[in-house]
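MODEL INPUT / OUTPUT PAIR
PAIR INDEX: 1
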Amino acid sequence: MKPKRIYLPIIIATALALGLIMGSFLNFPAPQRGLISGSSHKSKLNKLIDFIESEYVDEVDTDSIVDLTVNSILEKLDPHSVYISKTEMGEVEQSMKGDFVGIGVNFYMYKDSVAVIKPVPGGPSDRAGIKPGDRILYAGNYKLFGRKLPNDTLFSKLKGAEGSQLTLTVFRKSTNKQFKVNVTRDVVPLKSVDAAVMADKAMGYIKINRFAETTADEFRIALESLKKAGATSIIIDLRDNGGGYLEKAVEIADEFLRDGQLIVKTRNKKNREDKTFATAEGIFEEGKVYVLINENSASASEILAGAIQDNDRGVIVGRRSFGKGLVQREMKLGDGSAVRLTVARYYTPSGRSIQRSYANGGEAYFNDFEKRFESGELYAADSIKIADTLKFKTVKGRTVYGGGGIIPDVFVPLDGHHGDEAVLMVMQSGIVSYFVFEQLDSERKLFEGKTAAQIQNQVTSTDKYYKAFDAYLAKNGLVFRLGRHRDKVKRYLAAEFARQLVSDKAYYEMILKEDNMIKSVLSPKPQKGK
């Protein structure tokens, strides 16, 4: 494969798109309704589909025509009113539900084999004795190796009813043996809280990747554990969190705000305004709070950040958030598909709408990140465009601005120099996980029994893994100049080794030590004017 240079906007656009898909899931339950009523305009579509099915000269998949029609209609509305086909619905619902029934393994296709990166701790496969590095050859009698199976086929073979048994045929490379093991399928959590660790002796850190059904409960458990560990201040990391359920962001805000403080307002087409207030049941109403945001923090993330900022409850750190102030409701269409339709706008406690304009269409709307990059906003607070006509006041009288996202109280630029961000994004991507797995696959015994600190020393004290990773990227068509990032690359590699060999906690404890936003909280510097 010929190596090719990958440019930053392409990589970031991909990451941003994924985040915004999550952001469009901010919804409330809705009663099930039919899509088409009896009006003449609406029945016209039904008649056309009937004519095509009965009279058109060639065979046509009318389902696909309807899908195109629905998407065309929604494109005329706003960028966050979206259609979810019945084939996509299962995956979407699973992601937001917070768990699924399966065998509980983190895997990927390596040389046409299902390679286990790591079983979910305490999950069905872990209990059955599956180990990192194992290859799953058969699920029952279904052959999984030597075939280029799509992920949906793999998932369908490994998932099943809760309590059902699946016989796996496994090859264990470390012993060069093949054996069968029975795994009882069970509920496997999909974590929305990635980490809860101590950043220093008094500062707790919680990373939220989305706002799903279980997020508030996960967060509460994490917060309680950090309080017991001695945390008197908390960092909430919402970077790259594209959103989710509004009510879960509200529940988390309630943990920090006093009884009666306004969290969020929503206003619908009929100008009905609903206000949500904090209760007296918050478990961290004292102590400092810091919220980390960036250009990919959207919707529910912005609701939480806005509530903390407008009530002067904490400090917002990072870069201007995405700017999504619309609320969607999910409406089933009767065939397994659904529409997430924008039904309201939300406003922060000071009255701000942080929704940025989509008057120039969806493409321009979603390409806003590139404009921020080119304008220099991601590197200098002075480059942030502030709407002087949209001034609002916090509870204590500080000026905040509406339109186009939450502007942080403390600005932290993108890491490194112009053009260096792509390296950081690669180091936080799945390709690092695959590289580390492949390294362990050939030398796992070198790391057996070692602590996280020993693993870190083994990886960072030599250029061996750094050079191997550079070659791995080139082999996969990704060419980067890693030279001036040597120490950072080593640190991320060591952290990933620790994650696969020890725990997610070990990963974050290594990464956070050199995180610029974390540093700005732990060792704050005077801020220049915005």
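PAIR INDEX: 2
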Amino acid sequence: MIDTADYIIVGAGSAGCVLAAELSSDPSNNVLLVESGPADRHFLIDMPRGVGKLMAPGNPHIWSYDVTKAGNRGTEKWVKGRAIGGSSSVNGMIYARGFASDYDRWAELGCTGWGWADMVPHFKAMEDHELGETPERGVGGPLRISTHPRKVAGDELCEAVIDAAAEAGTPRVADTNASPQGGIGYQARTIWKGKRQSAAKAFLRPALARKNLTVISDTDVLRILFDGQRASGVEVRDASGVRRIDARREIIVSAGAIQSPKLLQLSGIGPARLLQDLGIAVVHDQPQVGRNLREHFYLQTKYRVKRGSLNHEFAGPRLLWNVLRYVIASSGPMTHAAQELIGYVKTEPALSRPDCQIGVGLYSMGLGPKGLELDKEPGLTIGGYPMHPVSLGEMHIVSADPDAAPYILANYLTDPEDQATAVRLVRYIRKIASQPALAELMIEEMMPGRAVQTDDEILADYLARGGTAYHVAGTCRMGSDAASVVDPLARVRGVSGLRVVDTSIFPELPSGNTNAPAMAAGRNVAMMIRKDR
């Protein structure tokens, strides 16, 4: 049983897997990767459209949280990956890097070493993209990326949506990650030959043969232990009980934007008054731990269509047939990502960059007796969210008990700027749906529906029906200012021997999904650590 390591990485998610692989590539480093959840061997993890079952509250591969949306607007469930691979083992497999302007903005905010010129080499080094190499796209890396396959069921509807978006002002592009002025196209996906490509599969598994890398799952890290102001070890709990593991060099927390600040607070790094009230000894008074919470607020619009929908493929005998197709040949609709098309749109032509992301799925769902259920009639979903929210939420622990759930406030759309963008997004989606290219296929808008027309009605509907995009970030903000939680080398301020590397350190959300940026962040910090040594 291991009791010491040079580097202890807490959390085998998107960033943690990359860190473990990169740090262990140096034979002089002894690396321990600790994951709270189970191994990633379940059939549903490999099968892309298994995501619906994986993300259901109660699944052993996820964390589930109760979240206050904002004020009196009710609560919702957030789920995050809790398995080897973290959220990359349970997510929608959407490969979205964000735009160069996102990372240059981070650099402007004081995150030296995180501008686009710094980050693009990490994306390129990770990628093995089927579209081939360009100055800003990589091939030969460990992470295999494909685009949604053409010549499949629903092609007619996909093409009609792309043409309609072009008529509305958003052009067709081959690679949406390489179009800083926006565009719509077939989804880039972390899927290869019909199977999910998680951070565990791409980065961690090839490194497991190394004798200097140890991975343990089903093990909770309860607290970080300190020798004065130096992080010296972790207290862990597994089936055999509670024990201590010492770190000779560093502890790197990569547990995600909820668990990472939670662990810091439980360990004495956080708002001093909160910690003292809960009976936790203060190691470092850091009021910003758990603050600056940012999340994309997602809304679905739903349309009834004449044909092209895959609703019928995911129910009854067709579902059984498609699962069989997947098992035998890794083909068919069970190999699709969470959506078939992705678009970055400007809801106002004068904007300097796209302000909203949309995703198009060849399905439609509604609430039934057992929760979300596929509609029986053919349907199309066009969902989206404002990409650069200004509204800030927060989270904090409510007990010194590591098993107690934290308090989380999303605080969606509390800023007028976010409200205005949300309304423009819905109107832009409707603009796409009303174009001539879709006229022959469209029957009617099901949600929000014809009764929702004014700005106030659209906003009220958005607040009522919208929800998490599973992109929570910002709760251990990185920066060069003294108030930031970590510095640009991801080192926790006020202590030594401790870093945080995951979406919690992002000062602002990137444009789009967070899995690819989290992996690139892991590689960026791993290179920083190796350079330091």
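PAIR 2 NOTE: The longest strand covers residues 241-253.
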